[in-house]
Amino acid sequence: MSIFISYSHKDRAFVDKLGLSLVDKRIPIFVDRWEMNVGDSITNKIQDAITDSSFLMVVLSKNSVESDWCKREITTGLMLELEKKRVLVLPVLIDDCEIPLFLRDKLYADFRGNFVTGFEKIVESVSRLKNDTTGRVNNDDDNIYYDFSINWGKRGEYFELQIDIVEYSIDIEKPSTFLTNIVFVGNKEATRKFDEYVKLGRDGLMKSMLLMLCAEEENFVNANAYLFDDKLFETILELRDFKTNINFKGYVTVKRLGPSDGKSKAYYFGSIFKKLWEEDRVNP
After folding, report:
1. How far is Cα 182 from Cα 162, in angstroms, rounded to an integer?
2. What DSSP designation does 176 have?
3. Within 13 A of 219's CA, how many CA atoms are on the CB side?
4. CA 154 → CA 133, 178, 184, 199, 242, distances in Å?
5. Segment 81-115, tens digit of pLDDT
6. How far from 95 is each of 141, 152, 229, CA to CA, in Å?
7. What is the DSSP letter of 208?
8. What is the pLDDT of residues 211-231, one digit of tens each?
9. What are phi and psi of 102, to 5 degrees?
């Protein structure tokens, strides 16, 4: 889970205060001035950051509503929210300004009167998807390890489970690192079931059920990512239970990190599902 903050650089004092407060709460963020280096492609870096984020926080002010660059970032976030439900737009109001038409139907965190009140609203919104399960498992090859993080909860109207996996090899002769992000979005029935679990104080049951289903689905376990040069691989996985009408759609992205020989590669990312289910059974 991470938050991309879209803002006008004229409001950087507020953004720095907000960013540091979020970091204190262990909430990952992307602020362009903190993350970008000399020589980086501004367009590519920001586009990738928005796509990889769970939330697009839009700082609304007189300065930002007049910024063409902010408008591009907001448009990108809204497109992802509508098309893939992968990025949720969070408006933040810091002074009296004309709110863009396409954001007027969204609730916003109001920082105009009191920073603490607005910040609590933000934390409440993002904490719905902040149930961290982290760990490390090894592959059948003793030189390869998976570091993983699993977050689950409701984002907007639907249940969502996010899996982030970094696979890396400690073999100095064959170094390799792969980053896999999988976002499962449940339908209304899956979300209703999750709400029932929450009332019972057992919200982790939905996470465990979904991991079990993935480990038992042959198409998932045998899934490969075909990486051409250093390009991003994307695919969609679907789980359907016709008896209960519980459905999940999984959005998968895989990319290669670190040194690369530039050659195409088939990466067997489906092997992680059984590993995660085995780990969940031991440490639910």
Report:
1. 6
2. -
3. 7
4. 16, 27, 11, 14, 23
5. 545 445 577 888 998 887 776 666 677 889 998 89
6. 56, 33, 46
7. H
8. 988 998 988 988 888 887 677
9. -80, 0
